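Researcher: Re-running this chain for the archive, since the previous output was lost when a drive failed. Same request as before.
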Amino acid sequence: MTRARRPITLQEAADRLGVHYMTAYRYVRTGRLPARREGVQWMIDPAELAKMRPPERMTRGHGTVRTEGPAKLAARMAAGDEAGAWGVVEAALASGVEAADVYLDLLVPALEVVGEGWAAGELTVADEHRATAVALRLVGRLGPRFARRGRKRGTVVVGAPAGEQHGLPAAILADLLRGVGFEVLDMGANTPAASFAETAKEANRLVATAIAITTPGGDAAARAAVKALRQADLGVPILVGGAAVHDRAHALRLGADEWSGLDGRSALVTIERIARSGGRS
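Model: Regenerated structure tokens:
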């Protein structure tokens, strides 16, 4: 008698397929990958993975995104060319790239190209502002693609603390979380500590709170936000992360329960893990 294969989690299935977690989740939601729900997790029969090889066109699309795409998109964004920038995004989507991977492998690297160009003196402050404005418009156009029907897995409050003027990282994370079934309350940039606490206290089925710091020098404001959330006695993990929070030790020094990582992909994985463990960091 052949021993039955042990069911694997959706994350394990995504790893074996070589795709993003959210891509595998879309396969389940559309019925392409059979799965059954066990608590908050989707479980998959490993035998089903043999039928789930990604289409060749998607592999080519990812390759294009990770090599040429960010620089091309960065140039359009810095020029303030929203139509041209959307054309780059649209081409990636047409080649089979998922919206989540457009964020993580195209838009975020393009923003990094812009930042590096400004630091090197190759781009001006005006170029950077134009790029940010176009990026915000792209996020606005991509956002509806992350909407999911059905009962939500709980709520996550995200935002940037007082003094932090960059709201894009939180907006991107908010969409990524919506794409895997969470309700998200995005507080945006420059959020007062008390507003974090007030929103989190009113949230339905709160899973976690996440504070994003992009600009160095925001430690004091992050500590204040963490303190306000702690005083609200929410009973859920408080996460701190972003480009200006270098590692877990740094996050813990700011009073957080956990480091959400440097980027949206890391934060998504961390929050997914917390949700699976029932709200424990």
